[in-house]
Amino acid sequence: MSNVKKVLIVGGGIGGLATAIALQKAGIQTEIVEKQKEWNVYGVGIILQSNALRAIDALGLMEEFLAVGTTHSALHIRDSQGNMIFDAPIHPSGKFNMTGGIPRRDLHDILLRTALNHGTNIRMGTTVEVIESAANFVYTTFTDGTSGTYDLVIGADGVRSKVRNMVFGEIEPNFVGQAVWRYTLERPKDIENITMYYGQKAKAGIVPMTKDSAYVFIVTAEPGNPWKPEDQLHVLMREAFNEFGGLIAELSEQISNPKEVVYRPLETLIVEKPWYRDRVILIGDSAHATVPHLAQGAAIAIEDALVLAELLQTDAPLPDILNQFMERRFERCKFIVENSNKLVNWELLQLEGRLPRENNPNAIVAQSLMKMTEAI
Ligand SMILES: Cc1cc2nc3c(=O)[nH]c(=O)nc-3n(C[C@H](O)[C@H](O)[C@H](O)COP(=O)(O)OP(=O)(O)OC[C@H]3O[C@@H](n4cnc5c(N)ncnc54)[C@H](O)[C@@H]3O)c2cc1C
After folding, report:
1. pLDDT (average), residues 296-318
2. Least CB-packed of 64, 173, 183, 214 within 10 Å?
3. 20 CB less than 6 Å from ligand 1?
4. What is residue 47's predicted lDDT score, i.e. its pLDDT?
């Protein structure tokens, strides 16, 4: 058993809550500070690739996931008019030869409930103000006027991480030139699996999330990251589907409420290794934020949680543990960030008609997802 007995986790998102669960299960006391006063997880869903399902299972949450979410046994790739291009196999991770879909709010509820049941303490509307590592502990003060000492502080506070900026200096994410639009609707009959549609200007898709619901998405080029009027998001999202026909075009006609359109300019970031300084470490998007082209961001955040919790159960000195964490996580996460960025660049080149013939996006997706089936 390591000397780490008490851990502060900054940020109660997917990575922070997964870490709290894994550490509490290992007998390590955790406390989360979350800057939002109330949970405000946005609508629409999330894809859990087979390695994400494996990680959810390792947290002991497969039953909870299956009670709400849905699974897919194939990935269909079609052209803009719905003609089949090919069916991509799902590479199995352990016993999971499927992908999953679930509304983000439900995934968050499952993680939150489980973290609380395991005894984590969560303080809402609070963040860190000072972080000072001493030889045997970290001293922190908080915005609610309190202070504390911990054996380890974990920055799980997302792509605009305050912990990262306090401990590592300013490292900003990069806008990649694309954005994604998403909208929840009733699950169409006969849509069992994630179905993607490749147009000339955009890439769209349907993702089943539950028995009854799905979301449609479309990825568009947005040079210069233009501002979008919030009350027009539904009109703009529908317009983005102009070149599409068939089912996806029919579904896009249901996009009617601007408040339910989730529009996100896409950003990316990889912090150079190591992701720790003294007794402070970054995990999840604060260390490696990726665009969703491989749908791996949440997967690798949960994997970070599992690996860190596993290592913290050994009695090795903390620097060795953190080093081993980097050995197991850095290349894998960097691979995802870089291959996702490659897909963005190829899609932008394709838009300009300049994508070299030998660059095959489907091959890189398949290779990347195959790699993620390797043991963590
Ligand atoms: C458009 C889009 C689609 C995506 N789709 C998928 C997908 O289909 N599959 C997939 O696996 N991944 C997907 N991802 C990636 C995934 O959402 C992220 O990788 C994942 O949420 C990372 O978890 P996290 O806990 O590191 O960060 P977050 O989920 O961002 O959580 C960070 C938490 O920290 C809190 N916080 C922030 N600052 C502070 C602070 N100073 N103090 C305290 N708390 C703070 C936030 O309020 C939040 O609760 C997608 C990402 C995007 C942008």
Report:
1. 97
2. 173
3. no
4. 98
Query: Strands, E, within 194-244: which ranges?
Result: 194-198, 202-208, 213-221
Q: Ligand 1 atom 20: the closest Cα is on which residue?
A: 298
Per DSSP, the three-state class of 264 is strand
Q: pLDDT at position 144, please?
A: 97
Q: What pLDDT does 68 receive?
A: 98
Are 249 and 360 part of one and the same domain? no
The predicted model gives 37-43 an average pLDDT of 94
Both 133 and 38 in one domain: the answer is: yes
| CA 126 to centroid of ligand 1, rounded, Å | 17
Question: Which pLDDT belongs to residue 196?
Answer: 95
Using the mean position of ligand 1's atoms as its centre, give its distance from the Cα of residue 86 in Å.
Answer: 31
Contacts of residue 181, defined as CB under 8 A and 6 or more positions apart, other chains included, come to 217, 218, 220, 233, 236, 237, 240, 261, 262, 263
Closest CA to 266 of 166, 162, 199, 347: 347
Residue 9's nearest CA partner among 375, 309, 289, 320 is 309
Which residues span the domain enclosing 249? 176-266
Q: Do 127 and 218 share a structural domain?
A: no
Q: What are the pLDDT digits (tens) for 200-243?
A: 999 999 999 999 999 999 999 999 999 999 999 999 999 999 99
Q: Which residues fall within 8 angstroms of residue 60, CB to CB, at 6 or more apart?
A: 21, 25, 114
Residue 208: CB within 6 Å of ligand 1? Answer: no
pLDDT at 110 over 90: yes
Same domain, yes or no, for 110 and 21? yes
Domain count, the chain: 2
Cross-strand partners of 77 = 86, 196
Query: What was the pLDDT predicted at 330?
Result: 98
pLDDT tens-digit series, residues 160-209: 999 999 999 999 999 999 999 999 999 999 899 999 999 999 999 999 99
**Contact call for residues 86 and 195 (beta carbons, < 8 A):** no
Last residue of a domain, one of 248, 266, 284: 266
Q: What is the DSSP letter of 202?
A: E
Ligand 1 contact, 123 CB (< 6 A): no
CB 34 less than 6 A from any atom of ligand 1? yes
Ligand 1 close to Cβ of residue 261 (< 6 A) = no
Both 258 and 156 in one domain: the answer is no
